[in-house]
Amino acid sequence: MKREKWGLDLLVKPQYNLTKFRHIDKIADEINGYEFGINAGVLIRRILFEEAQYFYGLFSSGLNYVSGTSQRQADGFVFSDNFLIGLNEELLENIYFDFRSEFRHTSNVGLNHPNGEGVNDLVLSGGDYLNL
Q1: Do residues 118 and 107 lie in contact, with contact meaning Cβ atoms separated by under 8 Å?
Q2: What letter does residue 70 receive in the DSSP assignment?
Q3: Are 90 and 51 in contact (CB under 8 A)?
Q4: Residue 44 pLDDT more than 60?
Q5: Distance CA 123, CA 120 (A)
Q6: What is the CB-side half-sphere exposure of residue 32 using CA atoms within 13 A?
Q7: Into how many domains does the chain fold?
Q8: Is the N-terminal amide bond of 114 cis, ω within 30° of 0?
């Protein structure tokens, strides 16, 4: 079956992350924390070569809870905005390798003090997945 070259998906992405942070920049001890939440977004995909490679971009936004943060932001509920680009390479039938780069901005939108213009993260990740 021939697929369309372009695709558009709506997604809901639950997440749970373990974190490490320094509460005060000058203290070397790292504190362990966690965050969880849910984002909703849009994923745009483009087939590159004979349905074996996909290039994609994603934007999502949602509400997260963070157990601890640096002094730039208050603990508790934050909004998370994610911008991501990636590449999927089919390894075997319906098994893909995924490589992506993500920019993530979290902020409590000034609802709690401090907000410190939010926190920005750059994430590089890779792995494989099964496409059912």
Answers
A1: yes
A2: -
A3: yes
A4: yes
A5: 10
A6: 1
A7: 1
A8: yes
Q: Can you say how many angstroms the Cα of residue 108 is from the centroid of all Cα atoms in its chain?
A: 17
β-bridge pairing 76-92 and 119-130: unpaired
**Residue 132 domain-assigned?**
no
3-state secondary structure of 110: coil
Domain of residue 76 covers 12-39+61-81
Q: What pLDDT, on the 0 to 100 scale, is given for residue 67?
A: 83
pLDDT digits (tens, 9 = 90+) for 62-115: 999 988 776 666 678 888 899 999 998 888 887 888 899 999 888 887 676 766
Angle at 55 between CA 128 and CA 14, to 5 degrees: 55
C-beta neighbour count of 112 within 10 angstroms: 13
Q: Half-sphere exposure (CA, 13 Å, Cβ side) for 27?
A: 9
pTM of this prediction exceeds 0.90? no
Q: Is residue 128 part of a domain?
A: no
Examine residue 101 and state whether it is found in any structural domain, yes or no: no
Let me know how many helices (H) and strands (E) the chain has, helices first.
0, 6
How distant, in Å, are the alpha carbons of 65, 70, 76, 115, 125 from that of 111? 14, 17, 10, 8, 31
